[in-house]
Each structure stands twice: as structure tokens, then as C-alpha cells.
Specification:
This is DUF6280 family protein. The chain is mostly helical and 106 residues long. The protein is built from five helices and no strands. Helix 1 crosses helix 3, helix 1 packs across helix 4 and helix 2 packs antiparallel against helix 4. The longest helix has 39 residues.
């Protein structure tokens, strides 16, 4: 029975790794769309086209994101803001840590 539990844990770990890999592909697609927006002015349309495509829907699903129209609109809004994903994620993490530190201090 122990082998079965270990196998299940291994499969869950592999699933998490795969999800993170696909999430990285989504972030790269966002960064590409932001670059297109700065260069050509069509970034939101590009990310929407990708997210609605068969490949885009598959990648979003594998990343753990439901590829519905609300998500597509959110991706378009993110691209239109023009903030690279690495900057947005680091700022978000920084704000989260700051809020946690303030909560501890209170």
C-alpha cells in the first residue's frame, strides 16, 4: 500500500510541475503581446486571438486557467496596461509581503 501512496504523491508532483510549465508559457505569451503592443499597438488583440485559439485554450487549461471569455478580457486588460509579467509579479509579491508585515505590526 505504501508504494501506491508514494506513486500518487509522485504523480501529483509531476502534475504541479506541468502546471507551472504551462503557466510560464502563458506569462511568455503575455510578455510577447505587451511587446507587440508597444511596437505595433495591437497587443490586446494578439493575446485575445491566442487565448481563443485551440492552442491557447489548451495551454490555459493545462496551466489551470479556465479559458472563458472573462479570462480573455482579463488578459487583454493586463496587456493594455503594458506592465511586464515579471514586474507585475514582483510588485504584487512585494505588496503582499508589505501588507503581511503591517498586519503583524498591528
Amino acid at each position: 500500500m505504501k508504494d501506491f501512496v508514494d506513486g500518487t504523491a509522485f504523480n501529483a508532483e509531476q502534475g504541479n510541475r506541468a502546471r507551472k510549465l504551462f503557466a510560464a508559457v502563458v506569462l511568455a505569451a503575455l510578455d510577447d503581446a505587451i511587446a507587440d503592443d508597444k511596437k505595433y499597438g495591437n497587443g490586446p488583440e494578439q493575446i485575445a486571438r491566442w487565448a481563443r485559439s485551440r492552442d491557447g485554450r489548451e495551454v490555459l487549461s493545462c496551466a489551470g486557467v479556465d479559458p472563458n471569455e472573462r479570462v480573455v478580457e482579463g488578459l487583454m486588460e493586463f496587456v493594455s496596461k503594458g506592465v511586464r509579467t515579471s514586474v507585475a509579479l514582483s510588485r504584487e509579491e512585494s505588496e503582499r509581503r508589505h501588507a503581511a508585515a503591517q498586519a503583524e505590526a498591528a
